[in-house]
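Hi Y.,

Following your request, here is the sequence exactly as I used it, all 459 residues.
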Amino acid sequence: MPYSNQFAGKGGHSDIIKNPDVQSFLDNCDPITTPSEEEAKKIVADFMRLGKGCEWMPSHVVASDASPYSEPVNGLFPSTQIGYVKNSLVIIDVNNYDGLKPINSRYVDPFRVAELHRNGDPISFTLPGSNIRYKGAKTVQDGFRRAVYEQLSDLRTSFTNDKTYNVVGTLLAIDDNEVELKKCPSCQHEQLFAFKRNEEVMKCNQCSEDVYITDSLRIHEQISEHGENNSAMTRFMNVVEHLIIASFIRMLGKHNPELLSHMAFIIDGPLAIFGQPAKTHARLMKLYDTVVKFMEEKNLEPPLLLGIQKTGTAVEHAKALGRYIEKGTFRVIDDEYRHKYIAARSEKSENFGHETYYGQDFIYRTDSGKVFVFGLPYPFESKSQSSSEATKSSFASKKIEVDRYYKNLGKAMKVISHFELELYDNAIVPIALAHRHASISLVPGGKVLDILTRKGLKI
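Below is the corresponding structure, written out as tokens. Let me know if you'd prefer a different format.
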């Protein structure tokens, strides 16, 4: 690492270039390469058409995206960090969207476009990083735990005037109204903490520190006293984005199931929770299965939940094959296909995403030629419904049975095709709008947040 204001030498790379060990190492690397035309045609041979077109179209589309920002604050202690996470929900009235271009006109109505942009609702979170002890906590990690609980338990993540449908309320609901933790996150003392409604904070018998229901997400485990904590902010962003959508769906199911049946929800990214909070994926899987059964009992169509991936290996693979895939066709990304063509250098697992995914991925090329990777929730309550189906390999075969997704596949393809966007590669309008409201630019946005942080911390 250089000293402050010390710059690297211009010829520093020459030793690496001349080093025979480097070339020997590169010679032994085997990267994934773009398939040839002949290979690509063989790969896409299994793509299929869904059949008759789907006439369903939601009345409203809700899209979610989030963005983190966490950089060391320049000052007396450059490693000091404050993290910012911005989550945005955009609600689009489909009739209003369809009316953006007046009849007999080549141009969109600018006033209606402006109204569409105003339908975004951002939620901002501020979290302590290294060198920051929040509210006098003993450690950075304890302060981070408290900040996470305070921000996820207040009304900023609620869709009603009480806390029933905020993130903490949803954490309880998806865990049968009792969340258990078996160890104090502060001193590691083994103790059973059973959180219930109105009992969301408990004391450790050993160290007397507060233990919070949100500690069950385990995000704090990535917080270090010194050094960057960007990964913790990213994990927070990932799990909160999914839980906020789940809270909205829970609220509508209770108060307006008829409206819920005509809605589509789009999440930026796969239907999966990564890192320390990954266990939450299984509870979300159970929740959405419960929602489907609840709606069917009322003779209502379940809402559509859709994950759209913008980046990643599956997206790179789909783009590479794009021009060879027949328009209007799709395929399920089964584990064998993923291991052979997408993650060909990784170790093959019995069930891809067993610890993280609650939805199945698909590749789809629209009639206009754009290629998308999207996910639909698994049509199961859990990944081990009975003793005879408990193995990972058994679930891996069941999750790719296309007939189980038939109705939702048609809906998903209709929504994707309807909201295609020319402005960006393989983009759809709802996610682009959500990202516009959630994104934090490095300049000037990041610089302004740095100034705000230094001013607030008086450094």
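Confidence is low (pLDDT under 50) at residues 440-449, 451-457.

Thanks again,
Q.
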